[in-house]
Amino acid sequence: MPPSAAAGPLAAATPQPLVAATEAVLLQLRLHKGDTRKVSWKETAERYRVNVTTLRRHAEAARRGALSRIGAGRPTTLPESAEARLADWIQRQYDAENPVSIDETRVKAKELAGVYKCRFAGEGGLPSADWVRAFDKRHAVGKRKAQPRGTERLVTAERLAAAEDLFSKWEQALGLVSFHRGGRPVTYREAPHRILNLDEGPAQRNIGCRFVLVPKALGERQSSCYIFCGSQHRQNYAAHGDPHTAVLVKPNSHIIDGQALAALLPHLAATLPGGVSADGSRLDPVALRVAQQQAFDILLLPGGLTHRLQPWDQCFAACKRAYRRVYDCWLAENGADAPFDRATWVRLLTQAQQEAFAKNPQLLANAWEKCGLWPLNPEKALAPMRAVLAAQQAQQAADAAPSAAAQPAAQPGSSHTAAKQAGKQGAAAAAAQASPDPATVAAVLTVRGPLRHQNGARSQAVKKAAVCGVCDR
After folding, report:
1. CA 116 to CA 111: how far, in whole Å?
2. The pTM is what?
3. Given Cys at both, which of 203, 272, 316, 372 links 323, Cβ 3.0 to 4.6 Å?
4. Where do the HTH CENPB-type domain residues begin and end (predicted)?
5. H or E element that contains 393
6. Residue 46 pLDDT > 70, yes or no?
7. Could you tell me which residues come within 8 angstroms of residue 50 by beta carbon, excluding any fewer than 6 positions away?
C-alpha cells in the first residue's frame, strides 16, 4: 500500500501535489527513524507548492493510519490512568536516587500496556524514544535532566587521574597468567589473542534486537550475540550473520543486562580462546558468579571516557557509514513501505561490517593502538586528554577574565562581606574537589576461576582473559 493510502478515505480527495509531498515526507521520516525534527518541511512544501501546515497535518494523518494498522486493532497509546502510574513509578525511582533510563521507561511502558490491554506500534510492543520524550514533556517527570550536548565527553582532572590509574592497572593485568603451555605460565602480554573487549554494536534499530561484538587486541573480530525481545525466535537469525553467533531471547526487552551477560559468558568461553569485557553497571552478582566459574579477569574502564579508551567505540563511525550505504541501497530497491524485519536487519548489519573491515583491514588493530591498550602505550591516549584539559582550562580562564574586570571596586565598608563571600566560595570549591563524581572513578575487579585438570594433572585455569569494559556507576 502506498503511503498516501495510509490516511484512509481522505486520500481520495487529496490534491495530487499534496499526495506526492506527503509521500516525500513519509520517506524522510523512514530515513530518519521517525524524527520529525529532521524532516525538511519547508523545502518539501516549496518543491511541491503546498502549504506547510497542510502538509504537516496530512503527513501526521498518514503516519497515524500506518501505525494503527501495526497495532492490529488494539489501542496504540496508554490511557491517562496508565500514564499516571508510569509517571508515579519514575518519580519514585528518582526519589530513591535510582535514575531511570529511556530504555527502562520503554520496558515499563510495555508492561503497563499489557495490563491495560493496549499495544505500542514499535517492534516487540515497545514505544519509541520519541514517545518517551513526549511523555516526559507531558508529565514533567522532574529529574531526568539531559546533559548539554558534549558535556559527557569533557575531560576533567578527575577523569584524567582515573585514566592514568587505569593504565597502571592495565600494565599489571598484562603480567597476569592467562594459561599454561607445557607447564610454563603464559601471560597476557605473550598471548594478545586473549585480550578482548565487549560492547554493543552500532546501527541499533527499534526492532527489538541488539548486536554484541567482541574484538580482539590482535585486530580480529568475532561476532558474539544477538539479543532479541520475545518469547521465542522462529528462524535462525545466526544464519544471516557471522558464524559462531549466539542468539539470546529475553521476554521483556532486548537490552544487555546482567541476565544477558550471564547467558553470554558460557557461550564466549566455548567459542573464543577465553574472555569477555563487561559494562560495569551490568556486573550483578549472578553475572559475577558466572564470570568466576568461567575464569575471567575483568578490568573496568572509567566512566565518561569510553569514547577514548574503548577500542570498539573507535570503529563506530566507519561501521555506521557502511551501514548507511547498505541501508540506503536496500531502501532504493525495496521502497519506503517494505517491511523491515529482524532477519533483514541482521543481514544488512553483517554486510555493512564486512564492507567496513574489507575497506580497512587494520580498523580494529588501529583502534586498540589509538586507545593505547595494545601495544601498551599510555601516552597515546593520555597526551590528547592532557591537551584537551589544558585547552578547557585556558578557555575557562579567558571567559572569567572579562567578568572579573567588569566587577565594581569594593566599597570601604564591604571588605568584611567580600572576605566572607570569598571564604564560602573557597570552601565550596574544596568540597567539590574532595568529592569527585562517582561515575569517573575507575574500578578494577579480578575474577579468578577454579583450578582446571588437563590429562589428570592439576594446573592453573586455562581459560582466562584480560578484558575491558564500561563502569558508569
Report:
1. 9
2. 0.58
3. 203
4. 70-145
5. helix 378-406
6. yes
7. 15, 17, 18, 21
